[in-house]
Every structure is written in structure tokens, then in C-alpha cells.
Amino acid sequence: MPNPDSMASEATIVDEQVLFTLADLCRACNASGAQLIVLVEEGVLEPVGSAPENWRFPGPSLARARAALRLWQDLDLSAAGTALVLDLLDQIEDLRSRLRRAGIR
Amino acid sequence: MEFKDYYATLGVQRTATQDEIKHAYRRLARKFHPDLNKQADAEAQFKDVGEAYKVLGDPEKRAAYDDVGQRYRSGQEFNPPPGWDGGFEFSGRDFGRGDAADLSEFFRTLFGRGAGAATSGASHRTGGDHHAKVSIELEDAYRGARRTISLRVPAVDAQGQLHLQDRQLEVNIPKGVRAGQHLRLLGQGEPANGNGPAGDLYLEIAFRDHPHFRVDGRDVYVDLPLTPWEAALGATVSAPVPDGAVQLSVPPGSPTGRKLRLKGKGIPGKPPGDLYAVLMVTAPAAETEPQKDAYAALARSFAGFHPRKAWEE
User: For chain A, how many structural domains are there in total?
Assistant: First the structure.
């Protein structure tokens, strides 16, 4: 009896359990190793491991790296400016989340 | 196909210098960037601005566009002149970022020919990873769901012309996914160029707005209206949760704003989130005589109750 679900693609959640190597993350973000190394130097991305070849990026790094690369390229920012924008976006998200908890949309 | 006036999109004169064009683009890109501007139409405006800058920011493309554009106004029906694609060669570097799906048909007709060079030039063995955004219901995160997703995938034909192909994909959305997270579908990205493995497809998840529930990370909030007597005397009330309803025990003397936590009733996972019922004490209007008498009796019973006491000192 054929499984009716057999045609559907299985999706896995890219959560903290998923670990990307630098090469994985480059491919997933369509970025160069040099770009991601700069984002690590600026503190935007925080992999575990000592040297780039040992780095492991937890799953949520994907969303963060993509946002950083979009802002960096689309707005012609410097790497330090990109890191600053992401920090400010984190602060805005924190405030938005307080508003959501308080019931203000 | 309509002619697009890229100068109007950037709000610059046709005589603008490259520097003026760059500054106009940066100003508008900051204003509409979807990471900075959460309004619904910001992303579409950002794409228009980006497309205009792709053309006007590159003197080679700008010259080609000006050559055609002399004969058209914005919104006018546009037909590419015969032999158009023979006269210009473009580097094709704009097609490397996998964002071709964002470009208009107008742009692709004018400049799509460069795509072949970009794709055939880079002979990577592994297919690239693709990305798309998907909006799901909050309930889908509680139960898991099977969804059909429509994707527009750029593809280059034998003539080197760029086309968008529609692709339908059935996806099992796993239970426990949260807004802002990515799902990974192995091997569903760009096909390999040769025998290597295909790329992966990543879906970025967003929740549609829900009429009752607010979501914060893995926690879910719902406003729970109570009558004054339920709030004062305590009650067992039925409260909605995204996968059904629960019986909730409201302790006596519960004020508006108090949060009752339902541990583990948020978005499932390890650990699961919590669900918070935020109490909202709601007083009815007194319309009939007996209702007015009931409020008057309340007033007599609570003669010592002064909610504005702090102002009177």
C-alpha cells in the first residue's frame, strides 16, 4: 500500500541542534568565506571552535547571516556599520516582543 | 509589458550624475529595506528601487536603457526593438546572487541575456541553495501540516535567456517550528551542474496574524475576558489554545492584566513554550432597572473603595 505522504518533502527545522561548517553556511547564504569571516570578526556571528576550519555555526546563524549580508550589500554599509545595524535591530525586536507580551501590536 | 521609468522610481532627473543616482538609491533603499521597514508594501518598493539602481547605477546598462527609453513613457506598452539583444553584451554578474526572481519581466527582457554567461562560466559541481518565505498558521506549528508551496525558480534556456519557472512542492511542515526559523529541505534547491548533489531549499517561516493569539518566540499569549464576579469570586472558565481549549481555574481576586501561565501549552518543542492567558475584567453596561439597582447595591457594599485615592492627596 503506497504511503500517501511519500510525495511530500520532509523538512527539518534549522534549530540550535543543526550545526553548519563555514563551507555549509557559505553555500546556504550564497556568500564567500571572506565575507562570513568578517562577520565573525565583527561579532555578528558567533561560531564555536577555534579556527575557521573548526568553526560550527548553530542553526539560527543562518537567519542572522542572511540579514547581515542583505543589509551590508543592499545599503553599501561597512562591516562595522552592519554589526551596529544588527545590534539595533536586536534591540528593536526586544522592544517589539515586550509590546506583544503587553498586547500592543 | 509596461515600460518602467527607472528615473522616476529613484526620483532623479534623466541628467543625474552617477553620484546623484547612487545617493538617491541609498536613501530609498534605507527607507524601504524589508529588514528595516516592516510595512507590507516596503519589500515591493525596495525591489523596484533595487532594479532601477541595477540599471541606472551601471553606466553601461544606463546607456542601453536611455537608448530605448527615449521613445517611451512610464506605464506605456513596451515592445523590445528588433535586434535589441544583438547590440549589447553585459557581464551577467547581476545574476549571481540568486535574486533573479525579484526582477521584473521588463528588466529580464532588456538585460536577461547576460544570464547564460554567469551560469555557464561558474562550473560548480554542487547546485546552489535556494531560499523562499512561507507563511503558515500558528495552528500548523502545534500540529504539523502538509502544505503546497509555489516557488518561482530562475532558469536559463538554451539561448541563454533567463526565465522564471513555476514549481509546486509538497512540504511536511514539522510540528514545533517558530516564526523566523528556517526549514531545510535536502536536495530541493538548484539542480547540480553535472553529477554532484543538488543544493538545498530553505524556507523561512512566518506566522499569519491570528485573531486571538499573539506569539512571542515559543510563548503564546491570549486575552481572557472575565466578568467582574468571575474575577472577584474565582471561576473555572474555558480558554482557547491553538490546538483546542483548556479549563482554566481563575483564582478569587484576579485583577486585569494578571497572567495565568499554562506551562508547556505554547509552541511544542524541547523545551515547549508556555501559554499565557492575560486576564481582562470586563464590566457590563447597566441598561435595565434591575441592572442599575445591582450596580447601586455594589456601590453601597464597596463604600470604602476609592480607585482614584492616589490623586486626592
Answer: 1
